[in-house]
Amino acid sequence: MTGLSVSERQAALETILTPARIIPVLTIDRIEDGVPLARALVAGGVKVLEVTFRTEAAAAAAKAMIAEVPEAVVGIGTVLNADDLRRAQALGARFAVSPGATPELLDAAAASDLPLLPGVATASELMQARARGFDLLKFFPAEQSGGIPMLRALAGPFPHTRFCPTGGVSAANAATWLAEPNVIAVGGSWLCPASDVKAGNWEVITGRCIDAMKSLRRK
After folding, report:
1. Which of 14, 50, 63, 143 is catalytic?
2. 113: which DSSP letter?
3. Three-state secondary structure call for residue 96
4. What is the C-alpha end-to-end distance of the chain, expressed in Å?
5. Closest by alpha carbon to 173, among 19, 16, 47, 22?
6. pTM as predicted
7. Which of 23, 107, 157, 205 has a CA-to-CA distance to 130 between 20 and 30 Å?
């Protein structure tokens, strides 16, 4: 990625997210769960993964997933500041995701080689991101911030901005979100509930992924 502009890195991120359709948001409590979880998701046709920086195990689990499951495209989520961004890049992540977008984080991302999906919930936040070249954004928390009506309202003044809604997106409404013209993918944790991860129900997770991807193809 070295030497690419923000817009070029955003375009590269779009090529990752668009075919993925669903980005599972993974909160991993045990390092040893990372690799089998990644393999279960990939086996179900879900290859672009977001490992959140919410647990002590996250970094080591993500590093193992990147090393041992090369088919997976691993990004790091819950990136809150420039240090988190640097940690994500050092792990070998392909992209980073933030729940919000402070000026400091946006500036750090503009100077970084790692593509960032910044989070926004309002027009003002969107404008701050666009001012630094970010036109591909995470809409978070999606349902709680006005849902699809809000996204449609933002499409008026910002017709070229594309979104990955996360927060309240589920198996029941993922296809509805994805039908919106300014949505390129959705994020959520429903594909791999914590109970299944804790129990090691990898085949169940794979089956849920297969069903989800088949369902989206029928829409």
Report:
1. 50
2. S
3. strand
4. 34
5. 22
6. 0.96
7. 23
SS3 content of the chain, % helix, strand, coil (to 5): 45, 15, 35
What domains does the chain contain, in order, with CATH numbers? Answer: 6-213 (3.20.20.70)
Q: Is the separation of the CB atoms in 137 and 163 below 8 Å?
A: yes
Query: Which segments within 84-203 are labelled E, that is strand?
Result: 95-97, 116-117, 119-120, 136-139, 162-165, 186-188
Q: Tell me whether residue 125 is one of the annotated catalytic residues.
A: no
CA pair distance 82, 94, nearest whole angstrom = 16
Of the residues 138, 180, 203, 214, only one is catalytic, namely 138
Active site residue 47: no
> For 40-69, how does the pLDDT look when each residue is reduced to its tens digit (9 = 90+)?
999 999 999 999 999 999 999 999 999 999
